[in-house]
Amino acid sequence: MRIAVLGTGTVGEAIGSKLVEVGHDVVMGSRSAGNEKAAAWADRFDERADHATFAEAAAHGELVVNATAGVGSLEALRAAGADNLSAKVLLDVANPLDFSGGFPPRLSVANDDSLGEQIQREFPQARVVKALNTMTAAVMVDPGLVPGEHEVFVAGDDAAAKQEVSALLESIGWPATAIRDLGGISAARAQEAYVLFWVALMQANGTPVFNIHVAR
Amino acid sequence: MRIAVLGTGTVGEAIGSKLVEVGHDVVMGSRSAGNEKAAAWADRFDERADHATFAEAAAHGELVVNATAGVGSLEALRAAGADNLSAKVLLDVANPLDFSGGFPPRLSVANDDSLGEQIQREFPQARVVKALNTMTAAVMVDPGLVPGEHEVFVAGDDAAAKQEVSALLESIGWPATAIRDLGGISAARAQEAYVLFWVALMQANGTPVFNIHVAR
C-alpha cells in the first residue's frame, strides 16, 4: 500500500520504518521538501521509502498517518491539503501535548473535545481513526516489547476505516484480540485524556516501555 | 479505627459497609442529620455503624473518606469543617464528573488541575490522598471481582498518609503489590483524567466491572 507518514519525529520514524519493513511504499512528509531528518530516514531504506512535503506525501498515500506533534497537527494537515486527505483513512496517532508550562504537560484540547475530533471536523471527507496514541513509539510498532496481554484502542466514525486500521495494526504485530474498538471519534477525548495518566505512570515506572491490559 | 465516610451514594455505601465489615467504627456523613439513605445504611449494621451530619461524622473520624459526588465535594468538605479535617488523612475517592451536558460526562476540573489538588489547597492541614477513583464501587471494595492482576493508584503529598491509605487498602483486600504510588497530589489530575478513558472502556465493555493492569 502507498502510505504517507506525516511527521519526522520519533513516532513518525518508528511507524514509517515499520511500515516499510512490512512491505509498504512509504513517503515521510514534512513542512519543507529538504528536511534533513526525513532525507536521512529515507536513505536508510530502498526505493520503497521516500520523503516529500506534507502535500506531496499526502497525495502519494492511499492511507495517511498523522504522526506530527499534536499541537501542530491541524496546521500540518492544512499544509497536506484537504483534497489530498479526502476519502482516505487518516490514522491519527498524535497527542496534543503542551509542554509550554513545563513537565508534566497539559493537553491543548481536552475534556469535552479532542484533537481527533478537531481533525475530523476540519476534514470531514477524511476517514479519521484515532489509535496508537496511548503508548510510546517503540511499543506501537513492537508490541512484544511489553510482556503479557495489553491492548491498543481504536476510535472513529467510519467502521470500514477502523477495519483497515485494524488490519494495518495486525500487519505490524498486534494480535487481533488486542485491538479494542472504543466507538466513534468522540472517544478520542478518552484516548487523549488517558495520556495524562500515561505520563504519570511513565514517571512512576521510570520507563515509557509499558502498556495497559484491561482485566475483566 | 474511627472512620468518617462522607457521602451516601453507591461509593459511600460500598466503602462504608466494607470498612464496618473489616472492623472499623464508621459514621456516614450527609448534608442533613436525618438522611434516610444514611439511616437505612446504619440500621443494617451493629453499633459500629452510625450516621450524622458531615461535620459530626468528620469530627468522629480519625480518617475521613470523601465519597461525595465530585462536583459537590468542596461544598461538602466545607460543611464538614476544616478543623474536623485538620491533621487527618483525607482519602479522596471522588471524581468531578459533570453530567449536565449529558453522557459521556465531562470533568468540572481537569487537565492542569484536579479535584484532589483543589481539596488539598483549600484544606492545607488535611493530608489528602487520592485513590480508588479509577474503578467502580464494587471493585474498590472487592478487587477479586476482576480476575488476574490489576492495580489501584495512590497519590498525595504526605508519604505517611499514603502508607496509612495503603494499609487500609490492604485491609479491604488489595494485595500490596497491586498498590501503585503515582507521587504527589498533582498526580490526581492523571487519576481523574483516566476516568474519561474509564467511561469509554465501560461503554465498550458493556460493564463497569473491570480494571487495568499496567504490563511492563
How many domain units of chain A?
1
So, CATH architecture of chain A?
3-Layer(aba) Sandwich
Q: Percent of residues of chain A in beta strands?
A: 15-25%
Using CB atoms under 8 Å apart, which protein chain pair has the greatest interface? A-B, 41 and 41 residues
Helix-strand sequence of chain A: EHEHEHEHHEEEHEHEHEHE
Q: What is the helical fraction of chain A, as a range of percent? A: 25-40%
* Intertermini distance of chain A: 36 Å
Number of alpha- plus pi-helical segments of chain A: 9
The oligomeric state of the chains shown is homodimer
Poorly predicted ranges of chain A: none
**Arithmetic mean pLDDT of chain A:** 97
Going by CATH, the homologous superfamily of chain A would be: NAD(P)-binding Rossmann-like Domain
Can you list the strand order of the major beta sheet of chain A? 3-2-1-4-5-8-9-10
Structural class of chain A: alpha/beta
CATH class of chain A: Alpha Beta
Overall, the morphology of chain A is globular
Number of DSSP strands of chain A? Answer: 11
